[in-house]
Design a protein that fits this description.
With 427 residues, the protein is mostly helical. It contains 19 helices and no strands. 84% of the residues lie in helices and 0% in strands. The longest helix has 34 residues.
């Protein structure tokens, strides 16, 4: 009996790792791109105005997100029709290859505008694969979850997200401290992207023996949807619209707080890169430790109370926290970042289960992938670009705070009209 329990636990643990490991690679890449955006902008989009170069770099960052809904349709169809395992194996493979190739790209000085074109193509391929990764891992883990633990299991997907961000942040911090600015511009920025290939190999190894969840196996027996996208569009428009609006605030908070702020503090407030990266890394560790516990909390008190508290925090505390950032001291920045990540952790922990419970198993992968990725394409990947553009046209460094408050307020209001499903069986 003990041997059987041990085997079940081992399989369960492997499912968790396999489910969220692709998110580590996805967000590792997006984090290092965001952190080195100033360098990438100058190397691939040189301009006499460094802010214009930065806007161009973030524009390419955003372009990749335009492919996410298309990736969601493709991988959603594969996941709902042929299984979560096949979709997730393909998505991590398609993410690992472009990430590694970015580290090998020639710069504008070497090949002119072809450098920017190649960078854009690789970002588009990444966006396509990412469209099926995060939402696919959510579908897989929530369907694997025992009764009453969907919030906890789902939270591990965002734990993987934070793990990728933390790894990217840590490597960026080490490089910023070990290498001179000249070395970072010469070769240092390439190192994190080349290391991404190792993460990809590990993810592929973990996913080769994945097994489908009981929910999907039951649907496979009873009859898989002939056209998941058509069924989703015909019968689930309202949940999709609600999810897009909820994900608006979530997306903007993720990309402004966790991706944009280090670059923002360095570019517009003169904070050194090592200080910006170091405070970010510490804050990420704290949030990672909080997410599984907050996921458990959402199983006990519901998804809505946890998420609404986080959204309300952004609405009422963003301006005071930005004022604290403007102090530019290490302790002030760290204090602001810690409060930000506690609020963000509430969203990260409860959203995966909330999303999964909005759609039935037959079209869950498609429903999540299309709805969530439309929101991420419109509001997530564009957030750093919009924030930088708003600063440029308004000449006001408070502009990102206005955008963050506006987006999270929309999501907070939308949550009021979403049904609480934490205690109900999965559809």
């Amino acid at each position: 009996m003990q041997e059987k329990n041990k085997q079940v636990f081992s399989l369960d643990k492997r499912s968790l790792f396999a489910g969220f490991f692709g998110n580590i690679l996805e967000w590792y890449d997006f984090t290092v791109y965001g952190f080195f955006a100033v360098i990438i902008g100058n190397l691939f989009f040189p301009s006499s105005d460094s802010t214009v170069s930065l806007i161009a770099a973030f524009a390419v960052f955003a372009v990749g997100y335009l492919m996410r809904p298309f990736g969601g349709i493709i991988f959603g169809h594969i996941g709902d029709k042929y299984g979560r395992k096949k979709a997730l194996f393909l998505s991590i493979l398609m993410m690992a290859i472009p990430t590694s190739l970015i580290g090998l790209l020639p710069t504008h000085q070497q090949v002119g505008w072809y450098a920017a074109l190649m960078l854009m193509v690789l970002r588009l391929l990444q966006g396509l694969s990412v469209g099926g990764e995060f939402t696919g891992s959510i579908s897989f883990l929530v369907e694997k979850a025992p009764e009453g633990k969907r919030g906890y299991y789902g939270s591990w997907t965002t734990f993987g997200v934070m793990g990728g961000m933390l790894l990217g942040s840590a490597i960026a911090t080490v490089l910023a401290n070990l290498l001179t600015p000249a070395q970072l511009y010469s070769f240092g920025w390439r190192i994190p992207f080349l290391l991404g290939s190792l993460i990809g190999v590990m993810g592929l190894y973990l996913r080769k023996d994945m097994t489908e969840g009981e929910q999907f196996e039951r649907i496979r027996t009873e009859g898989i949807s002939r056209s998941p996208l058509k069924e989703f569009w015909k019968e689930h428009k309202i949940p999709a619209i609600k999810l897009i609006m909820i994900s608006w605030g979530f997306a903007v908070s993720v990309y402004l707080v966790l991706i944009f702020l280090p670059t923002y503090m360095h570019k517009f407030h003169g904070v050194s890169l090592d200080s910006a990266f170091s405070t970010h890394t510490i804050a990420m560790i704290v949030m990672m430790l909080l997410i599984p516990s907050l996921g458990k909390l959402s199983d006990k008190i519901g998804r809505k109370p946890v998420m609404m508290l986080g959204m309300a925090g952004f609405v009422f505390l963003t301006f005071p926290l930005f004022a604290l950032l403007f102090e530019t001291t290490f302790l002030a920045i760290l204090a602001a970042m810690l409060v930000f990540v506690v609020m963000e952790g509430m969203l990260q922990a409860a959203l995966p289960a909330l999303m999964s419970e909005m759609f039935p198993t037959r079209i869950r992968y498609t429903g999540l992938s299309v709805s969530y990725n439309i929101s991420l394409a419109l509001f997530g990947g564009t957030a750093p670009l919009i924030a930088t553009w708003l600063i440029k046209i308004s000449d006001n460094v408070w502009a990102p705070a206005f955008y963050l408050v506006s987006a999270t307020l929309v999501s907070l209001i939308t949550l009021i009209f979403v049904k609480e499903t934490a205690k109900e069986p999965l559809k």
